[in-house]
Amino acid sequence: MKRILGAIALLVATALAVPAWAVEEDGYQLWMRYRPLDRAAQARLDASAIIYQGAASPTVNAAIGELQRATKGWAGHAAPLRSGLQDGAIVLATPANAPQLAAQIDGLKTLGAEGYALKRLKLQGRRITLIAANTDIGLLYGSFAWLRAAGSGAALDKLDERSAPKLQLRVLNHWDNLDRTVERGYAGESIWDWWALPEVRDRRYIDYARANASLGINGAVLNNVNSKAEILTAPWIAKAAAVADVLRPYGIRVYLSARFSTPLELKETATADPLAPEVAAWWRRKADEIYRAIPDFGGFLVKANSEGQPGPQDYHRSHADGANMLAQALAPHKGIVMWRAFVYAAEKPVDRARQAYDEFKPLDGSFAPNVMVQVKNGAIDFQPREPFHPLFGAMKHTPLMMEFQITKEYLGFATHLAYLGPLFQETLRSDTRQREGGWTVAQVLEEGAGPAGLTGMAGVANIGSSRTWSGSHFDQANWYAFGRLAWNPQASARHIAQEWAAQTFPPAAAKDITDMMMMSREAVVNYMTPLGLHHLMGTGHHHGPAPWVDDLGRPDWNPVYYHKADRKGVGFDRTAGGSGALAQYAPELARRWSDPRSTPPELLLWFHHLPWTYAMPSGRDLWTELVAHYDLGVSQADELRKRWAKLRPMIDAERFEDVSTLLDKQYKEALWWRDASVAYFQSVSGLPLPAGVRAPERSLEEYKRQRFPFAPGRG
Ligand code: GCW
Fold first, then answer.
1. Three-state DSSP class for residue 230
2. Which of 26, 179, 288, 307 is catalytic?
3. What would the pLDDT profile of 267-321 be if each residue is shown by its tens digit?
4. Annotated catalytic residue: which of 136, 409, 475, 499?
5. Is residue 409 flagged as an active site residue?
6. Residue that terminates a domain, selected from 163, 198, 229
7. For position 229, which CATH number holds?
8. What's the pTM value of the predicted model, to 2 decimals?
9. Which residue among 25, 136, 321, 381 is the active-site one?
10. Is any atom of ligand 1 closer than 6 Å to the C-beta of 667?
11. 381 is catalytic
12. Residues 229-275: tens digit of each pLDDT
């Protein structure tokens, strides 16, 4: 008996000794894990109750529910909901439900409809944490802000924070098809179970909404920009309406991608010409129908005359004609059109990087007030590194919406660790020089343009049915970073990484994890496309290196179009002597970047075609420098896995293993990228390998022979 009791005692003791973080985790809870805290940390929370006076709306209930979920997780019991003040209470107040409490915040009004204030104070002799806002949504955002502060180790007893979003529209773009496949999706199927909708509303939609609301994301385009006519038929509108009902309490509006030829394809008009009265009338009726089902519908996202999609140019009308016609149909309901600037045509012999600007700049000022032009961060296509798109700062009278790609189509899918915070930040902090004294892309976005002053940012989602949501634990950070930067485009990528890591992993590991994240994107640039090289990925799926491909139907589908490597040199000449694309930037930048000497080395081959012998600032010639970058990328990938290995004692076994496996694969693929690229560029340059450099493992032919017919994510 004694022995048995002893064994039981030992078992219990061992169980208790297992730190909370050692519990198995599969990533489903994202950064909202609310794992048990030790006693000291529990005391620091100081959350004895939640105070809300009056009848709670679904949004306020979501806020209270989240605070209770978290306190239950952290402290073992949910903070009870009360109405009288008490020590240690978290008090939720708006001018409508508790005017005297809300009045504790000076200038609350200035925080607008979505802002919030968090403040620790003493009221009627009681110590409270006040979460105040002008609206219920503000309260929800404020509650999440408090949870973020608590979850990332901020000093809660000194809390005094106010925040309001700098952009109005913070929107995820799902490239989700109606059959539940996801274009460029690497995280399983679409989370939208279209087939079972509208009757069946997967519980996941609520967790999706919570995650978005925790970041302030307030819009979701549910379907792929390569859209189908069916999405605008009654059964599909009903499905979208069901999703909208679930998302509404979380402040998220639903939008749909509209196919420009919808009425024609549904055989309800004889043309899709935007200037034909029957077409405009059809879209008006359609908008009315949608708003009957979804009263707060956000509007349409449109990809037109791009990569085979129909559009106004099929009828010799302009992008503005097309956008304005749709905008008119939505205007009575206060809906908007997000019209994409991602257009290029192979029939045009001009540099692809020039085409969006050439097309849209002349239309500046001719868009309806409720149209935003949605512009990708760079002029080609979501490459590991691109200079900012020249349309930013150039469209003085048109509100521009940023389009980032959160899903990593060109950065190793969900298998490579590449934290995109630094990529987003690099674009946002780029100075367009379109104004005396400087004007960054972030400032351009925040200021908005046009009569309605619309502002916004879109992110192509990396969300799917995977247990981790994003296909890997670290890819969740890219969703997180997008949301935080959409709220504040001037936020710091490092700070965001720290915040995410502290909430997602044990706080003790946060610093090392942040460092890994911060080096990861540059590692990818180095082993894939250093020094301004771009678009060298495998055909169609964009997996792996294929710089040799030169036989595709359109010139601008071939990697050789982008690197132009030959015996003498490498790079795309976009100066006045080349494609002239550089002239689309502000004169000061165009001048600076027209000389390779004053072009940032990381953009060198984006703008210049240079001899292999070109002397780099490092003192090495271009060829040696290029190979050195590939080698650096490989060693950085190696370093990532070594740094992670050291964190083993701190991380739960399941996630530790998941990440380790991926980092090993990333290292292998970094080697592959390096070897195949070096082998190829050597074959064109005819140069010997620089001294001391390792020869590629296999022959170029072997790399060329690789095929990936079942790579994920194709449309
Ligand atoms: O990035 C490219 C992708 C396509 C995508 C297109 C776009 C949705 O390869 O899959 O199509 O851009 O942005 O429209």
1. helix
2. 307
3. 999 999 999 999 999 999 999 999 999 999 999 999 999 999 999 999 999 999 9
4. 409
5. yes
6. 163
7. 3.20.20.80
8. 0.96
9. 381
10. no
11. yes
12. 999 999 999 999 999 999 999 999 999 999 999 999 999 999 999 99
Ligand 1 atom with minimal separation from the 410 CA: 1
Domain of residue 630 covers 526-572+609-704
Q: Two tokens at 195?
A: 């087939």
Q: Could you tell me the distance, in angstroms and rounded to a whole number, from the CA of residue 393 to the centre of ligand 1? A: 24
C-beta separation of 488 from 446 below 8 A? no
Name residue, tokens 């942040």: 514
Question: Is the Cβ atom of 381 under 6 angstroms away from ligand 1?
Answer: yes
Query: What SS3 class is residue 91?
Result: strand
Domain tally, the chain: 3
Under 8 Å between Cβ of 69 and 99: no
* Same-domain pairing of 430 and 445: yes
592 part of a folded domain: no
Residues 143 and 175 in one domain: no
- Verify that 556 and 489 share a domain, yes or no: no
Q: Residue 119 maps to which CATH number?
A: 3.30.379.10
* 560 domain-assigned: yes
Amino acid, res. 432: T
Maximum C-alpha span of the chain:
91
Take residue 319 and report the two structure tokens written for it: 């992008």
| Ligand 1 in reach of 538 Cβ (< 6 A) | no
The pLDDT tens digits of the residues spanning 172-218 come to: 999 999 999 999 999 999 999 999 999 999 999 999 999 999 999 99
Q: Residue 565 sits in a domain of what CATH number? A: 3.90.1330.10
User: One-letter amino acid identity for 216?
Assistant: G
Confirm whether 2 is domain-assigned.
no
| Whether 146 and 203 share a structural domain | no
- Tell me if 519 is assigned to some domain: no
The residue among 175, 122, 145, 161 whose CA lies nearest residue 70 is 145
- 409 C-beta closer than 6 A to ligand 1: yes
